[in-house]
Amino acid sequence: MTDFLQRFESHLRAALGDPRHAEREPAVLLEASNHLATAGSAKRMRPLLVNHFGAAVDLHPLYRLCIATAAELIHTASLLHDDVIDEGTERRGRPTANARWNNSVAVLSGDLVLCIALEQLYELPRTVTTTAIELVAEMTRSAMLEVQARRARRWDLDDWHAIARGKTGALLAWCGRAPALAKNESDLARSFADCGHHLGLAFQITDDLIDVMSTDTGKNRFADLRQANPSFLIAAARQRDDQLCRDIDAWWDGDGEADELHRLARAVASSEAPRVAVNAVDDHLAAALDALGEFANHPNGRQIVGWVEQLRSIAHGALTSALPKRSHA
Q1: What does residue 43 show for φ and ψ, rounded to 5 degrees?
Q2: What is the residue-wise DSSP string for 85-103?
């Protein structure tokens, strides 16, 4: 894994440093792209999944690197655009591109990064590129759904699912589909895409859970509640408690007390919603393993199984850490 990540980082930097782009003005576009894409705190989950799926079908290591780089750059472009939409100021421990430069640089850098991502797929079967283009279109539509939901501030679990399927779910599904398509394994492409889809939804639910439940997220805690971001956990809490739903709506509408954020977060944390979220994570992870099928016993399949167990542990750990301690009296 360490060896792959080292090769991936070199390949990523080479893609961003390609003379077709690096030797052309304005240089600020690649400067902003590198600022985010090569941040040391990036987890590289998507490239690792591509490598595991690719190794399971014996895809050439170079092609695994190309698909992994494309996946990471598509993700990077979405972050550059999201930070403009959200008016974000920090990402991966650094100022966002829009904060360091401006919105124009961030948006246009994201566009350039998408082009560089697709360039990585030139030598692969056309279906790989076709599905990558379809992925970008799906992620774009889901990003717009997210903007609309945040503005309306009345989203529910159905809205959350529509957004998560088209963003995190779709991208991780492509991380499974693309390596199999590169080997012309259409049946496996469907199975691996299904596995990636469920991994993506489980990951997103866990991320939503951590935002409220964990005290050490490395992020702006309670961001989802503060910004009315569609969140599985908050949607589940609103659905199950009418009074809490009204209180959250009032706070979002600006009619609640300014210092109510922490009280509302505690109410969400102490509701049934966290357990509902963890159960949903378990269900998606079980579906991911079922879709993986016999490849769960492949050496690289076992890496995915290990990732599943790690994600399950994180979700359950977030729930356990927030449970009220029982009295021994």
Answers
A1: -80, -25
A2: HHT--EETTEE-HHHHS-H
Burial class of residue 327, CB neighbours in 10 A (0-12, 13-18, 19+): exposed
pLDDT digits (tens, 9 = 90+) for 71-84: 999 999 999 999 99
Distance CA 180, CA 26 (A): 37
CA distance 96 to 87: 9
Give percent of the chain above pLDDT 90: 77
- Give dist(CA 22, CA 20) in Å, integer: 6
Q: Which of 28, 20, 5 is nearest to 101 (CA)?
A: 28
Contacts of residue 24, defined as CB under 8 A and 6 or more positions apart, other chains included, come to none
Q: Which residues, listed in sequence order, are joined to residue 94 by a DSSP beta bridge?
A: 91
φ, ψ (nearest 5 deg) of residue 26: -80, 135
Q: Which CATH number fits domain 125-329: 1.10.600.10, 1.10.260.40, 3.40.1550.10, 1.10.10.60?
A: 1.10.600.10
Question: If we measure between CA atoms, which residue out of 175, 225, 235, 177 comes closest to residue 205?
Answer: 235
Peptide bond into 274 cis (omega under 30): no
pLDDT given at position 325 = 37
Residues of the chain with CATH 1.10.600.10: 1-123, 125-329
- According to DSSP H, which parts of 43-96 are helical? 45-56, 61-86
Which amino acid is located at 165 in the chain? Answer: R
Q: Kindly report, residue by residue over 138-194, the tens digit of the pLDDT.
A: 999 999 999 999 988 889 999 999 999 999 999 999 999 999 999 999 999 999 999
- CATH architecture for residues 1-123: Orthogonal Bundle (1.10)
pLDDT at position 2, please? 80
Span between the terminal Cα atoms of the chain, in Å: 49
Beta-carbon contacts of 140 under 8 Å, excluding residues fewer than 6 positions away, are none
Q: Could you count the other beta carbons within 10 Å of the beta carbon of residue 93? A: 10
pLDDT band at 310 (very low <50, low <70, confident <90, very high): very high
